[in-house]
Amino acid sequence: xxxxxxxxxxxxxxxxxxxxxxxxxxxxxxxxxxxxxxxxxxxxxxxxxxxxxxxxxxxxxxxxxxxxxxxxxxxxxxxxxxxxxxxxxxxxxxxxxxxxxxxxxxxxxxxxxxxxxxxxxxxxxxxxxxxxxxxxxxxxxxxxxxxxxxxxxxxxxxxxxxxxxxxxxxxxxxxxxxxxxxxxxxxxxxxxxxxxxxxxxxxxxxxxxxxxxxxxxxxxxxxxxxxxxxxxxxxxxxxxxxxxxxxxxxxxxxxxxxxxxxxxxxxxxxxxxxxxxxxxxxxxxxxxxxxxxxxxxxxxxxxxxxxxxxxxxxxxxxxxxxxxxxxxxxxxxxxxxxxxxxxx
Length: 344
Ligand code: 5AD
What we know:
By secondary structure, the chain is an alpha/beta fold. It has helices at residues 2-11, 16-24, 28-46, 84-97, 114-127, 142-151, 165-171, 178-190, 208-221, 247-260, 270-275, 279-285, 298-303, 321-330; strands at residues 49-52, 54-59, 101-106, 132-136, 155-157, 194-201, 225-230, 290-291, 334-336. It has a 6-stranded parallel sheet with strand order 2-3-4-5-6-7. A 3-stranded parallel sheet has the order 8-1-9. The model has no long low-confidence stretch (mean pLDDT 97). The site of 5'-deoxyadenosine (5AD) has 12 residues, from loops.
């Protein structure tokens, strides 16, 4: 196993079988080794900085019906969308708190046409010229991605969810396809976005093999960001009775992604913090280097329920920024509010 680990560190790529052996190895000594290699790889590139991004969940409407997601079209979630000015004031609040990255995330909401997105991004760009703008609103046309880029967006998050096409069908209705999703990611990269892919860990039907496929896909796409969190069931979805994804496996996957690309911007996600009380710090210790405190207005934030028990007012909430900074420092990290671009 150590030979494979060294091969990964030296070559930055492995075969599907090699990935599967690494991913499936549950030996605690090996997990410790993996974690410490991943943390050193991160430290060599970014030091002990943890980049903080202000997350604005600006619409909970979604035209899709993904079987795992609490915001799927068929769920009875109460919907909201923030207004243009509401989004700008959330950015302003984030800016005043010191954030220099805003992440605008939402469901696939047809209300936010290309015109509306472009005008929103333009206004954010001119009000906060030195801040990075990250968009995360799912699959759109190449033209749409281009217009948002020209309006001033810098980064785009679009998790591929799983790179195994038959597993993709277990997670999504037939109206969605893995090919389309992968294509969106390739377009985003080509347009010059810092691009984020990613997957859930332990989603129904997943296996060490599907995770190995995810690693092969990441190895080929080379995204600048990778979002990874455990699957957590939501009571109003077909997966309500499915088990939660493993925290330990999520931590191992974070370390492997860090070793695949030591430069990757890798969030320690809210899902990880929800699945384990100490999850977000454990994620950093496994090699992550980004946290996305939530700055969505509280009444909206409550309604943005993608899985059950999602934390809304813990360390990850922007109101508790002081507490988060202290917590990071106590664990030997430095809270960094700067843009925190991918260093190539
Ligand atoms: N558990 C964990 N993560 C989920 N997501 C959606 N539903 C769930 C769930 N039940 C993740 C998806 C999506 C991101 C915004 O949240 O990976 O891309």
